[in-house]
Write a structure and sequence with these properties.
The chain has 239 residues and is α/β, with parallel strands linked by helices. The protein is built from 9 helices and 10 strands. Helix content is 38%, strand content 25%. It has a 6-stranded mixed beta sheet with strand order 6-7-8-3-9-10, with helices on both faces. This is ABC transporter ATP-binding protein.
Amino acid sequence: MTVQSARHRAADPVTESMVLVEHVSRTYGSGDAAVHAVRDVSLSIAPGELVVLVGRSGSGKTTLLNVVGGLDKPDEGRVVVDGREVSSLDERGLVALRRDVVSFVFQTFGLVPVLSAAENVGVPLRLRKVPPRARDERVALLLDLVGLTDHADQRPGELSGGQQQRVAIARALANSPRLLVADEPTGQLDSATGVAIMGLLRAVVEHERTTALVATHDPVMMALADRVVRLQDGVLVEE
């Protein structure tokens, strides 16, 4: 990196980052019952980077993911995602953020039981009123990407846990999000299936050119990450 580019990075971190977290804190409750879930956390994630967030249960991982994705607001500090200051958006702006910029994958798959795998993947595209032909092409591409072309017509109850998570990942990618936020995406899966899902996440980040922030306990996911960030009692303690 040249001196000039280094100065530019220092001068304007927002333009260099897909995610910028600055001195964010989030507390639930008050007084003796207060829980300081996140304390003065600062973090920058570059476009196209896969960052894994690790820490024990209760360390603040889910809270930080929710704040970054606009599901929760910080008490202090600010969050900027793709140039948008998430922490200051109104409800309409947050809906647009979650529709156009950020997608989520959780350990609970959240699929619609009465819809087929293809129909589940197509739900976000229907909400955006994507024309049927373009929608079908995108769904077919994503099912192929996650290895489920042959299961397109099956409903969630006819799929294994790993297959359901693959459908959930494909659905999260339907609208070509700039940022994928995943909270313990292998938490309900056996170890072998979990390894396959983690490898898939790495592959889709590269294929779709998506930035990803993934909370996990799994060392395999850490090995696949570009960077590992550790939280302890709500504090960023290691990178």
